[in-house]
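Protein data:
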Amino acid sequence: MLVAANLLPLFGVLFSGWSVFIVMSLFWLENVIIGAWNVPRMATQLLRGQWGALFLIPFFIVHYGLFCAIHGLFVTGIFGHDQPIPGGKIEASPLAAFTLIGRLIEADPALWWAAAGMVASHGVSFLVNFLGSGEWKREDAGSLMFAPYRRVMVLHLTILAGAGAIALLGAPVWGLVVLVFIKTVVDAWSHLAERNRLAGAAQPTGPVAP
């Protein structure tokens, strides 16, 4: 599912003429999706009696929401300053990036499918890995609150550097294809690293009684 979801932007680049701005906007949207799925992850810790999650969940929503808003303005300012915006100019505000992605999706249905693929990919991981494999029993609300930041920082420092180079080259199609490939590899690496970490947490660390 993760690989399939990452192939949808590749389709947009090759067949819908997506620019580096649109690709980066879509990758930004995935940050929001990751944060949205993290809320039910944190909520599962209430079932384990971690009542601090009642405070951490709203704190995470506000803090991560502001983080995404600022990141969205950053992406828009760097890659979208000379791009046509569907529906006209958008005033700078914390919600500007959210408004922009809504307009982009409305203007290009292929973006809707790409966004839906990302929602489905992270949803399957939540159901199969986090719930189905019992990972939720090996986590705590505090660690879960910071988990999206770790993934987003590693991923987007990588693709921001690549996207900046592509923009300087005039956004050639082959460059965008390489960018999508790099993003897929880093995303898969982060996903497998998380699975391995939680699988290791399930192993006994002390001596086993005969």
Notes: The helical segments are 2-15, 20-43, 53-79, 96-107, 109-132, 141-168, 173-201. The first helix runs from residue 2 to 15. The chain has a mean pLDDT of 79.
